[in-house]
Amino acid sequence: MEELDRISDLPTELKENILVRLPVKEAVRTCCLSSNWRLAWSSIPEFVYDIDKYSISTPDILPHEYRAEDPVKMVQFVDNFLASHDGSIRKFVIIADGMICSEALDRWIGVLLRKEIEEFRITFHNWWKVPSTFWNLQCLREVVLRCSKCTIELPRAFKGFKLLKSLGLSRYLMYKYDMELSIKFYHLRTLLIKMNFACQREASVVRQLFRRAPNLQKLTVEEANIYYAYTSVTSEEWAQYTVLENLKFVEINNFFDNHKAVLLFVEFLLASTPVLEELHFEKKINYPEFFQKLLRLKRTSKKAKIILPKN
């Protein structure tokens, strides 16, 4: 008991530092030690709910009411945390195994407006229209939105996230006038996008992102596994008005059967990146003709290396 008292009497900042390094289950259990730990829980600067770290087949990993198959209880858990929290939240991460109602996400963003949030990452499996309040989170440095489809409608008065360094988008939809806004992301260094390489609409949005991030250094691209009639995007359309002057590293994680569209995208990248150092393909593709054409593409950067997956 004496050791427990000494641990509970640690400075609040140290207890917060311990809690943010624990999974949600362990952090909640730790808060049962004493009122001091409960106080630390109510002021932790980072909240990470990652259901992928819990095995649903193991009954004691999470209390039953918070397991992935019960999204309503999970939402209640997050609601209760935010309602009892006092102070700033630098990092807010939700990685769910199912669906989250958009009303809950909108509600959480309303709370985070008062929390000086710097990192916002969500992963779930349904459609979400990003609320207008999201664009008021002006302290953001990292944003990742991974959902089945994400609709983005920028307010006319939005001038961009001036501190944003890292952005991840998955299956996004932007309205035409959003792409015409004169927004610059000067601090953006890292961009992750999941897209359909052959979709003209998505390609147009990506080109706009490239143009508005002049200091982009690292790009990660995944193809969305969406099966519908492809429209063609030419290399000229990709290259239109775009030079990625500071891009050094590109990673293409996976793509499916539309090799021609991917090849046109890579052709644009190699022609528009004067300081490119590495272009990685992470997934083995059993399509020799594609790689033969790939290796014949011209490269603007003399340092550019194309790195293929090992057999």
Question: How is this structure best described in words?
Answer:
The chain is α/β, with parallel strands linked by helices. It has a domain at 189-311: Rossmann fold (3-Layer(aba) Sandwich), CATH 3.40.50. It has helices at residues 2-8, 12-19, 24-30, 35-41, 71-84, 102-112, 176-179, 200-212, 235-239, 259-271, 288-295, and strands spanning 46-50, 91-95, 119-123, 127-129, 142-152, 166-174, 190-195, 218-223, 249-254, 278-281, 305-307. Strands 1, 2, 3, 4, 5, 6, 7, 8, 9, 10 and 11 form an 11-stranded parallel beta sheet that branches.
Instruction: Fill in the CATH topology of the domain at 189-311.
Output: Rossmann fold
Looking at the overall shape, the CATH architecture of the domain at 189-311 is 3-Layer(aba) Sandwich
- Portion in beta strands: 15-25%
The main β sheet shows up as: 11 strands, parallel
* Count of helical regions: 11
Mean pLDDT: 79
* Low-pLDDT windows of residues: 54-68
Radius of gyration: 22 Å
Outline type: elongated
SSE order in H/E notation?
HHHHEHEHEEEEHEHEHEHEHE
Organism: Rhynchospora pubera
InterPro entries: F-box-like_dom_sf, F-box_dom, LRR_dom_sf
Domain F-box: 10-50
Pfam family, one: F-box
Please provide a brief summary of the model.
It comes from Rhynchospora pubera. By secondary structure, the protein is of the alpha/beta class. The chain has helices spanning 2-8, 12-19, 24-30, 35-41, 71-84, 102-112, 176-179, 200-212, 235-239, 259-271, 288-295, and strands at residues 46-50, 91-95, 119-123, 127-129, 142-152, 166-174, 190-195, 218-223, 249-254, 278-281, 305-307.
